[in-house]
Design goal:
The protein has helices spanning 38-47, 71-97, 105-127, 131-134, 139-148, 153-171, 184-188, 194-197, 205-209, and strands at residues 26-29, 32-35, 52-54. Helices cover 51% and strands 5% of the residues.
């Protein structure tokens, strides 16, 4: 007997809140849901990035990429993002060419710009699909919206541990990585906790930020 395949939770509309009664159109920005007109919904999808929306065609809130009449607004927003990316990248190239950047800054900027460009390319591919293929390409949008509804408790705890250990690095005896990093003599002397804390050690404020 074959084991039935259980779809992931984000594939079912049940993971999204039920559409408010008596309000045909609306959106969720941050954690706040509010009703609006179709024109305002289009404008917010063009200039902002609501995590979920609702329309008369859907019994629940859904990601905006699932609503066909919002796709034009989403494409307009993507075009604005590409323009912003080009402006920032051009400004950074001028800065680098002028020699006004330190030794680590170029590598960090490349990482940031590469991540930004990859995100824009994913959005472009998603919005460039044909109408026939679009129905089968919403799983990623569903997953993103479902993920936004989850509580990031573990992430927040890890972030707090990282910040506290960085403070310990700065304020501890010896400063820097010696305060919480892997120092063999200290481990042999009984500070076994360093075997865990070393994974959270950062080399400075820039390293912590990225």
């Amino acid at each position: 007997m074959e084991t039935p395949v259980v779809p992931p939770p984000w594939e079912g509309l049940a993971v999204y809140p039920v559409r408010p009664e008596g309000i045909e159109y609306g959106l969720v920005e941050g954690r706040r849901a509010r009703g609006c007109s179709p024109e305002e919904l289009l404008e917010r999808c063009r200039r902002g990035d609501p995590s979920l929306v609702w329309t008369p065609e859907w019994p629940t809130l859904v990601p905006p990429d699932e609503v066909p009449f919002l796709r034009g607004a989403r494409r307009a927003r993507l075009a604005r993002q590409w323009a912003g990316f080009a402006a920032v990248a051009g400004g950074l190239l001028v800065l680098l060419a002028s020699g006004g950047a330190g030794p680590m800054l170029p590598a960090l900027l490349v990482i940031v710009l590469a991540g930004w460009a990859a995100d824009l390319f994913r959005s472009h591919r998603r919005l460039s699909r044909s109408e026939a293929d679009y129905a089968g390409a919403v799983s990623a949008a569903r997953f993103g919206a479902w993920l936004g509804l989850q509580s990031p408790a573990v992430t927040l705890c890890l972030g707090a541990v990282i910040v506290l250990l960085f403070v310990a690095q700065v304020a501890g005896a010896g400063g820097g990585a010696l305060a919480a990093g892997l120092v063999k003599g200290a481990v042999r002397g009984g500070e076994v906790w360093r075997l865990l804390s070393v994974a959270f050690v950062h080399g400075g404020p820039i390293h912590l930020f990225f």
